[in-house]
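So, who can interpret the following?
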Amino acid sequence: MREQLAAAGTRDESGVPLDDQQILQEVGIYRYHHPLENSVLYQARLLDLERRVATMLRDGQAIEKSNLFTFDNSLAKGRKMSDDLAKLMLRAYNAEVDIGIRTLKAGNVQTAKKRLESSRQAIARLGAMMQMRISEEFHALRIEELELTADWLMKKQEEREAEREERARLREEKRVEKELAEERARLDKERTLLVQTLEKLGAVGADDPNLVERIAAIDQAIAENDYRAANIRAGYVYVISNRGAFGEGVVKIGLTRRLEPKERVHELGGASVPFRFDIHTIYFSEDAVTLELELHRHFANRALNQANPRKEFFFASPSEVRDVLARKVGNLLEFSEHAEATEFFQSLSQWPNDRQLTT
């Protein structure tokens, strides 16, 4: 694939690659040039940088040139020509910076920096007779501006994703709280009816062992429900796969606190993916948060999305996850290594012939 991208990749007249997909593959995971805690700090740094750039432009320190160039044997005409050409060159250079900033994405900052360096070299080449060149200090500031802008864009993207995930987490927590409250109300109502029935039987000297057993079972269910409500770390760790959407050897390892964890799995198999997920196991843990984190860490180097660690898909077979999970929790009562992928196989024969051959 990389060779295909490289062959198809376009370059500008100076040989700088312009194919963002090619650059993304070559650069890999984004690394911050100037690590800061949040986007607000990046904005403050960029504002300070803009002031420094404006100061250098105002003080004539952005571009260097000879003051001894003559035109028509006139030093004054030579200086006028140098000044006019310097303004033109500087405008072209700054325009390259502006274009680079407007088109910046996480993966193409290297392209923008290369193009800016190429522009600087072209100015030095064209202005060689007048010893004209963009100053090192000014060029360093504009490079820093590109890097800070790219960092700021990436940080903003991370913050938006974190906010979106936090909102989803809060919605899930509220839903779980509502489910637990409704379940507690149902259990209380059922227990009250059973106790009243038992009291009526006792008033006439009768008894019903089955009612006593049912009340004891409800008391146990109430205790478990209250524990779930009080312990936010308790929940279900699930291992699921979707062969039709992601192929074989890919699993999702997640967590839900819902009373009916399968509902969460059914939601994941909604309209955003073409097929439903297959469940390999749903394991209840009193500390499901830690268990999920340990599984994610174990398979971290096999995550599909190496750029965003919050994603939960991994290159692993269900049996590999089972072995790791069993070492952490002991015997698993239920675990299915086989993925039925019913909808996928029902659909496969109806696919176009060229798609069947690549499956």
Observations:
- The chain has 13 helices and six strands.
- The longest strand covers residues 278-285.
